[in-house]
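Repro:
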Amino acid sequence: MVTGAHDSATRLAPVRLRDVPGPHRPVGSITRGTTNPNRLRRCDRWLAGPQSGRLRRSTTPPIVVDLGYGASPVTAVELHERLRRVRPDVQVVGIEIDPERVAAARPLERAGLSFRRGGFEVPLGDGRRPTVVRAFNVLRQYDEAEVAGAWAQLRTRLAPGGLIVDGTCDEVGRRAAWVAVDEAGPVSLTISLRLRGLGRPSDVAERLPKALIHRNVPGEPIHAFLTDLDDAWARSAPHAGWGARQRFLAAAADIAGRWPLADGPSRWRLGEMTVAWDAVAPVS
């Protein structure tokens, strides 16, 4: 099911999660996959910040997979550059289902950065398991009903204490949202916004991950969360005189008593907010 894309695209020869691949056949389908430099910087910053302990705790060089990196390997290169500041021996592996994309990326390989062909089976070889699998703008292109199966398959590949990041962002990375999934299941939803020029926080709705994007309707928890955040943003308008950052900080503090936020001002000031999954999960 790996799309090999960091963008919305037309599916080519789709393969369903229920299909059983041959012994050497990647689990997934090839799609168009354009991307841009710095597009995933918000997620990278979160992995190198609140999630850095997962890398530091590993007793062996941690493996981080950029799953479905697309036509350009730039996001995998950037991920390696950012995470090695946290853990110099980190191993970043870009995985793509299109062999031509893998071949094009191979000249960029270096110590700690490699590329290989594969899909949701995450073929690392030698029994190796990733500490983090980042899959951005991948499941967005498939049916909502397939998400749980994709998460379940990826969870079987994780190292102990590992994490899957299933996210979506706009073309230049100014609006992003991602679900964190650990060995037991989904844990949290994070939204990350460029605050300058922000109309309202719910502008991120069109970039919600596939598990939630069709659930932003009355009666669903994610709709209630974004509505409450918009209302708090409106009430915080007097803080705009000190800048959008102060306004967002005030809005986040406003809803913190009503929603189980997993972070605080140090992340809010970045336009980032993480809420427990149970609070925003689909009702059915």
